[in-house]
Design a protein that fits this description.
Layout lengths: L10 H28 L7 H13 L4 H8 L3 H13 L3 E4 L9 E4 L1 H21 L5 H20 L4
Antiparallel strand pairs: 1-2
């Protein structure tokens, strides 16, 4: 098998992908801290923000669905939902597909809060874009999406 048909990559490419991972960790941690520092206006932790973002993008979901989508424990997601519900940002509604697993949906207050956070983030990211091109950003998204998909489906010995 070759690298074009899903076989092992050349050692040099594996080294380059390791460089990607070496950057993603610090990038994630810095973004995490930035969100924590910038979100007090809305009172959102990073976990609550992630739940609100997912509901904004995908509509009402169950707690187990959110946990699977983010590779997080159901218990952690439930704590984030409880925090968001206590602030009036989400609400439980009956799930026609499953009587015991309610759907969680954004309230209007939740939609306003997550939109404000996303708008602020986009403004900052617009400044960070610098001289990057659309093609470079598209390539970055493609690589990161590929790695995420691979890690979700690979069995490591």
């Amino acid at each position: 098998m070759s690298e074009t048909d899903g076989g092992p990559a050349a050692p040099e490419l594996a080294d380059r992908l390791a460089e990607v991972f070496d950057l993603v960790g610090p990038l994630y941690r810095r973004a995490y801290r930035k969100v924590e520092l910038d979100s007090p206006i809305e009172g959102l932790s990073v976990g609550v923000r992630a739940v609100l973002t997912m509901l904004r993008e995908h509509g009402p979901m169950t707690v187990p669905q959110m946990g699977r989508a983010q590779a997080l424990s159901r218990q952690f997601v439930q704590r984030m939902i409880n925090d968001a519900a206590a602030r009036g940002l989400v609400e439980s509604v009956p799930n026609p597909a499953h009587k015991r697993s309610s759907l969680i949906r954004l309230t209007e207050q939740g939609r306003i809060a997550i939109t404000a956070v996303a708008d602020r983030e986009r403004a900052v990211l617009g400044q960070a874009a610098g001289d990057l091109t659309e093609a470079e950003v598209a390539a970055c998204i493609r690589v990161l999406s590929h790695l995420l998909h691979f890690l979700d489906h690979v069995e490591v010995d």
